[in-house]
Amino acid sequence: MKKPKLYSPQRTKGNSTFKIPRLYDTPEWKEYSRRFLNINTKCYACGEKSGAVDHFHAHKNDRELFWKEDNMVPLC
Fold first, then answer.
1. pTM of the entire structure?
2. Furthest-apart CA atoms within the chain: distance in Å
């Protein structure tokens, strides 16, 4: 017996009715991460120069958890 074909919306670049805005793409996050990295200059894992901000716990688009300061970690 053949598997039924599942519906999946066509993915496109740019504006799309199916596109969900990412929290990382906001101007607020870009400014916050820039300031965070200016203060937290060393990678949490290895001690090298940090270049990215990540979260300890996955936020899964939960705004409160996304912006929680004690959930942030600098990484290289």
1. 0.68
2. 59
